[in-house]
Write a structure and sequence with these properties.
Blueprint: E1 3-4, H1 10-13, E2 17-18, E3 24-27, E4 32-37, E5 45-49, E6 65-68, H2 78-82, E7 87-89, E8 95-97, H3 105-114, E9 120-123, E10 129-131
Antiparallel strand pairs: 1-4, 2-3, 3-4, 4-5, 6-9, 7-8, 9-10
Length: 134
């Protein structure tokens, strides 16, 4: 039985996407990506808000550099779950970058936003930090 924390309607429940490791996500109210638990008795929770900018502020997302701070990484592996073409876990159970272009930019941004310690830093082609938001 799935427990959905964001108060999803039946229509939203049908849009649940399953990623590896039994983690489920769906787009909730206000375009919030919600985590859903697949275990009885454990509720999901909001883990991050994606695409918070207004349409007027948006420009094509270009990620030219990704840095994983190994001191901040706790090995939660949400980045690997969301963007397995870009991130993998190493022998020390820390996230590492395997391919800058392993996933599309939006997916990489979602993966960085999912990190509970904000250990993933994204930069655009001018060197400006995209995430964590400043």
């Amino acid at each position: 039985m799935l427990h959905i924390a964001c108060g999803a309607s039946r229509a939203q429940e049908e849009k649940i996407s399953r990623f590896r490791y039994g983690i489920y996500f769906y787009r909730g109210p206000f375009n919030i990506l919600c985590l859903v638990s697949g275990r009885d008795g454990v509720d999901g929770r909001h883990i991050f808000t994606h695409n918070h900018r207004t349409m007027a502020e948006q420009k094509p997302l270009v990620i030219s550099k990704i840095v994983v701070d190994r001191d901040l990484c706790i090995g939660a592996a949400t980045c690997v779950t969301i963007a397995p073409g870009t991130f993998q876990m190493d022998d020390e159970n820390k996230a590492i970058l395997v391919d800058l272009h392993g996933n599309d930019a939006e997916t990489i941004l979602m993966a960085a936003e999912s990190c509970p310690t904000k250990a993933i830093f994204l930069y655009d082609d001018t060197g400006a930090q995209i995430y964590p938001y400043t």
